[in-house]
Design goal:
The chain has about 80 residues and is mostly helical. The protein has three helices and no strands. α1 runs antiparallel to α3 and α2 packs antiparallel against α3. The model has no long low-confidence stretch (mean pLDDT about 95).
Length: about 80
């Protein structure tokens, strides 16, 4: 998908951190569709993408795992860095 470079970099950093997170692996990577609107255009509202699309999904992945809040924080830092 044709995403802007800044979005690609965020997605790559987030997916690298997902792969490093205990209990997760590359099967849990976030795909490009999370960064697109309903017309297939790249969204630029990074804060909303995180809080409305990605964070809830990651919380579901990590539900019941030890240290899930700390893991979410590490993932958020990777995404926003």
């Amino acid at each position: 998908m044709n995403l802007p470079q800044n979005i690609k970099e965020r997605m790559i950093k987030l997916n690298e951190q997902i792969s490093k997170t205990d209990g997760l692996n590359n099967s849990y990577h976030i795909g490009a569709a999370y960064f697109l609107d309903s017309n297939g255009n790249a969204r630029q509202d990074i804060d909303n993408i995180w809080s409305l699309r990605i964070e809830p999904l990651l919380k579901e992945y990590l539900r019941g795992m030890p240290d899930s809040l700390e893991k979410i924080e590490l993932l958020k830092n990777a995404f926003t860095a």
